[in-house]
Amino acid sequence: PQHVVLYPMVSKSLRNIAAGKDPLEGQRHCCGIAQLHEHHSLGYEDLDELQKNPQPLIFDIEVLKVEEPGSYQQDPWAMTDEEKLQAVPLIHKEGNELYRQGKVPEAASKYYDAIACLKNLQMKEQPGSPDWIELDQKITPLLLNYCQCKLQCQEYYEVLDHCSSILNKYEDNVKAYFKRGKAHAAVWNVAEAQADFAKVLALDPSLRPVVAKELRSLEARLREKDKEDKVRFKGIFSQ
């Protein structure tokens, strides 16, 4: 049992991976024993019980498939720190190529993998330290690419969350304001969209034609919505 005392944390990470989540989700920058004391509940009754009462474990391993040598591409969680750093530019490039081919969900998945690699490394650094900031600056363009994919997939609230997180750290990021403005416009947050587009123009006046196009589109949608509302409410009040 003494050899598996930290297994519940490992198992939670594996379950996160199976669910497509970050394997270190919910963990903070500290040692394994501190993690053990930090988490009074792991979110799974069986793991909570095993954490309280460590038991000898027996693992059954099932072979699912056999791949040719050199054909296997490691998941980010399985890479060493050096492998993660080397993989990020390649994954980024793969994402860009998929996006150019119009395979937007697949591109988003690639950008997510690259972000996960860097986030994993960043968790090992002290927040605000030079190394942490350097990694964060590598994450930002990938996150903006991810947001562009999510815009096209009409997942607007995710775009709002990610762009806001970027702007909380980098107040002069024009792309984050622009993408957040588009997301606000899509969910009818008119004042917020106008404020974000105004900020884009203040930071980069050369984007005026692009912003003007977005504002015209928003105004046209508002007029159409107003017409639809008048027809709808007219029917209600005439009864």
Automatic annotation (TrEMBL):
Q: How does it assemble?
A: Interacts with RET in the pituitary gland; this interaction prevents the formation of the AIP-survivin complex.
Q: Does the keyword Cytoplasm apply?
A: yes
* Protein name in UniProt: AH receptor-interacting protein
Q: Function, please?
A: May play a positive role in AHR-mediated (aromatic hydrocarbon receptor) signaling, possibly by influencing its receptivity for ligand and/or its nuclear targeting.
Gene encoding the protein: Aip
SUPFAM superfamilies cross-referenced by the UniProt entry: TPR-like
At which residues are the TPR repeats?
Answer: 174-207
Q: Taking every annotated instance into account, which residue ranges of this chain make up the domain AIP/AIPL N-terminal FKBP-type PPIase?
A: 1-63
Chief localization? cytoplasm
UniProt subcellular location: Cytoplasm
Q: Reply yes or no: does the keyword Phosphoprotein apply.
A: yes
MF-aspect GO terms: peptidyl-prolyl cis-trans isomerase activity
User: Its GO CC terms?
Assistant: cytoplasm
PANTHER family reported for this sequence? AH RECEPTOR-INTERACTING PROTEIN, ARYL HYDROCARBON RECEPTOR INTERACTING PROTEIN RELATED
Alphabetical keyword list: Cytoplasm, Phosphoprotein, Repeat, TPR repeat
Pfam families registered for this protein in UniProt:
PPIase_AIP
